[in-house]
Amino acid sequence: MSAPSSVPTVPLDAAAVGEALAAMRGHAPLVQCLTNVVVAQWTANVLLAVGASPSMVDNPEEAGPFAAVADGVLVNLGTPQEATVAAMHGAVSAAAAAGTPWVLDPVGVGGLAWRSRVVVDLLAHASPALVRGNPSEILASAGGGSGGRGPESVDAAEDALDAGRALAREHGTIVAVSGEVDHLTDGTRLVRVANGHRWLTQVTGGGCALGALMAAFAATTDDPLLAATAATATYTVAAEVAAERAAGPGSFAVALLDSLATLNPQELTEKVMLR
Ligand code: ATP
Ligand code: TZP
Ligand code: MG
Ligand code: MG
After folding, report:
1. Which of 100, 104, 118, 203 counts the most CB atoms within 10 A of its CB?
2. Atom 9 of ligand 2 has which residue's CA nearest to it?
3. How many domains does the chain have?
């Protein structure tokens, strides 16, 4: 399968964010997810709803060959086993060789020693297009902080920003720090996305599915900072629309799939709050 052609690099503004959504839907990128067992189904549903094509190929025999034909790859460390870590290295090798963007979500690093070494090894293996995590995970990935509370952050996004910039520069990547306001940086430029809803924190995989969306947008957008911004904007604006129709986290999760499917580029451009 040939990789989808990318949209040209465009200035980072609200109109470019809407155009990136249209381009991503136009290509329906094949996104390989090596993700955790908690969020796999939710992640696949989010990708399908938004118009991408998920495939959870995460065993050591098939992960490399599949990454060679996928359009984007997600590596999420939420529930790592030795076999899936071997599969991650195979996928990262093949993605790097093919020039396919891969996204690292270092779930739970810092507080847990073995997966923290896995992150160091993966980052040494090849540079991801994007690293996406909560503030504690970004601090730990840059070699600092005290670790989160399992997959949850104990730090604020602003406090992880310097670490995020350093990590972005060291690996030539984009770093996305989640929170009430998402902070996205390439080590120089900074974009803040102020959309979202607190119910995203009460649906498991609220952050993990965003990493998969970033892989989808990175597959079809030349500028990875724009890809990260458009993925975040799509997810968080859809969350705001969904929250208007929902009574709590359960009905919100269902409504979020509906609003991801119906969100159009013009509405995204009108509602995104870039700071
Ligand atoms: P954690 O691992 O701590 O759950 P995460 O990075 O996996 O964090 P969240 O911090 O829950 O995921 O972020 C997922 C999305 O939810 C982000 O894009 C963010 O915009 C949104 N979000 C998080 N907290 C809030 C909040 N208090 N208000 C509005 N939106 C929020
Ligand atoms: N345990 C290991 S991974 C995981 C849990 C609960 C899911 C974390 O999802 P998110 O998106 O970081 O909130
Ligand atoms: Mg969360
Ligand atoms: Mg998380």
Report:
1. 104
2. 205
3. 1
